[in-house]
Amino acid sequence: MKRWKSGFLLICVFMLVLAGCSDSNAGTETDSSGDGDKKVIKVGVLASLTGALETYGKQTVQGFELGLEYATEGTMEVNGHKIEFVVEDTETKPEVAIQKATKLLEEDEVDFLVGSSSSGDTLAVLPLAEEYEKVMLVEPAVADSITGADWNKYIFRTARNSSQDAVAGAAAIAGDGVKIATLAPDYSFGHDGVAAFKEAALELGAEIVLEEYADPAATDFTSNIQKILDADPDYLFVVWAGANSPWNQISDMKVQERGIKISTGAPDIAALHTMEQLIGMEGFSVYYHTLPDNPINDWLVEKHKEKFNGEVPDLFTPGGMTAAIAIVEALKKTEGDTDSDLIIETMEGMSFDTPKGQMTFRPEDHQAMQTLYAVRLEKVDGFDYPVPVLMRELSPDETAPPIRNNQ
């Protein structure tokens, strides 16, 4: 009887120990190898996979996937922790972006957010990053207010912002007495872009004679372009994103024949196909695959062709890659720890190499300082669209935007 009681007590003790071990691991997701101390790190990617900005969303997602591959050397692990990512379509609708972000945070329990293609979508999601205390890397949305008035400490942006575009755009055309009209879509991306351009252009002595805003879903820009013609500027500076670009109507209404020079940021390859009439235009570029000269961009171009049927990376592909690299580099420094306060401390002031050269997160507002490119659109043999040809690189110091978050 005594031996039976002793054996029973030993079994009870053993079961309690097992229960204690089980409780200590509760809430920790382990990888498929069964290593209980190795967490699966999850990233939620918000992107426009449908709607007017779907090509931008797809570029970002493809770049992010390649960025994880590059930064982890193909292992998809950091310090033994596996990295997974979940993609959600915002449909380029802020209310949908909120729903999808909430799903990623609550159901998928992601450690990071990345996105989105639209500034409107992104601005809607920023408060959720703060509420759930999760770091969000903004890519490719550019509205100044994201790292300005609407910023919170959980927000880092690998994308350039409107002011960085504006500095580059103004440097190309603004000067004493130059009259400039602007055309942009009527939402935060357009308004922030024009406001930043106007500030930079006025500092260089230019005069803004008209700010014209069009419905972002418009297909007919006749009335907008007529107002520009009536204002009779020296230059028309265009801020635009999306497939429904105004270039064909600008050509049809013979804006340049009226003596008005066009300037803009060189868009993605699909939009470049509509800009044959703008050969010779001088402006700026965020990215074109032949502009950066560094090993990471060489890797990106080669891998992208290999993985996506010979296609080259487009305007926002390197941005997706850069966001992935930034996350992995931060995790390497924290040895896989995803604590948000530690990640923020690590990423503030962090420099890291990207397809566009070295970037640095400015500590004050977490905006990535980065290279942009002064370009001229030229006809190049073998291409059926105008190609952005490098005039010179615009350094991170040259394109550094004002700090606007009032911190």
Automatic annotation (TrEMBL):
The keyword Signal applies. InterPro entries: BCAA_transport, Leu-bd, Peripla_BP_I. Residues 41-378 form the Leucine-binding protein domain. Keywords: Signal. Residues 1-26 form the signal peptide. Belongs to the leucine-binding protein family. This is ABC transporter permease.
